[in-house]
Amino acid sequence: MIIKNTALRRALIALNSVLLIIVLIFSPLAYYLYNFRFYDSLYEKNGVYKTLDKNDVKILTESVFEFFRSNKPFESFQLKSGIDYFNENEISHLNDVRILLNRIMLAFYISAGLFIIVLIFLADKKYLFFLRNIAVIFVISTSAMLFFLISLYILGNNFSGLFKNFHLVFFPQGNWAFPEDALIINIFPFGFFYDFFFRLLSSSFFVSLFLLAFSVPVLVISNKLISKKISCQKE
Q1: Quick check: helix, strand or coil at residue 185?
Q2: Cα–Cα distance for residue pair 189/205, rounded to 1 Å
Q3: How many other CB atoms sit within 10 Å of the CB of residue 27?
Q4: Using CA atoms, how far apart are residues 132 and 136, in angstroms rounded to an integer?
Q5: Is the pLDDT of residue 2 over 60?
Q6: pLDDT of residue 174
Q7: Is 204 exposed, middle or buried (0-12, 13-18, 19+ CB in 10 A)?
Q8: Which of 119, 103, 104 has the alpha carbon at shortest distance from 15?
Q9: Which stretches within the chain are classed as H helix?
Q10: First to last CA, the chain
Q11: Is 231 exposed, middle or buried (0-12, 13-18, 19+ CB in 10 A)?
């Protein structure tokens, strides 16, 4: 399908730019969310294994993964460290997190699917125009992403405040504050979320930077070739 209406084409380019921003924001989360190797590195860095048995942590993490994926009920067991298993309040908060993550992943997959569909609608027999449209989308999206990520990085310097405000906004029902000896705090300490946040931030930043560095030359070259082609046609 070739779209000849300029206003409609611009609207689709704007829409796809927004969709790509959503994809770029959440793609690192989609990659790391159920990546146990990544969790293991954060556990090591933040001293989780000094308090909890490594095998217990693996079982707990896989249980959390299954709970997030399919709402599979937790199966309580006796931890070697003697720390009590997740209580009702901890599981209630994990359930709130599960609901939020499912909504985020749904938005991610819908956005990725719609992005591909809109690209198909933007397809043009004149490949240079199609290439330019794609380059415009990537330049707009990645530029906006870099600005957004730099802003987040600045806010992240006060991560404790950002972390608290995040919970106040997305978990207004409360039940997200726990005593220091709670299992949820021992397996997911503050430093875990700090490192997780900056890994997501840096991943999105470098992907966006790479795409911007690639799309700008494509945009410049395609514009030059289109201008040259138009000039030749006029002669």
Answers
A1: helix
A2: 25
A3: 17
A4: 6
A5: no
A6: 77
A7: buried
A8: 119
A9: 6-32, 36-45, 54-70, 88-121, 127-156, 159-170, 183-187, 190-234
A10: 30
A11: exposed
User: How far from the centroid of its chain's Cα atoms is residue 85's Cα?
Assistant: 30
Dist CA 124 CA 48 (whole Å): 54
Neighbours of 7 (CB within 10 A): 8
Tokens representing residue 135 in the block: 């380059």
Q: What are phi and psi of 53, to 5 degrees?
A: -65, 140
Tell me how crowded residue 148 is: count the other CB atoms within 10 A of its CB.
16
- Domain locations in the chain? 6-234
Mean pLDDT across the stretch 123-134? 81
Which amino acid would we find at residue 162? L
pTM of the model: 0.88
Q: What is the mean pLDDT of the chain?
A: 91
Q: What is the pLDDT of residues 188-203, one digit of tens each?
A: 999 999 999 999 999 9
**Encoded tokens for 6:** 């300029």
The residue type of 148 is F
Please report where in the chains the tokens 């609901």 appear, as a residue: 99
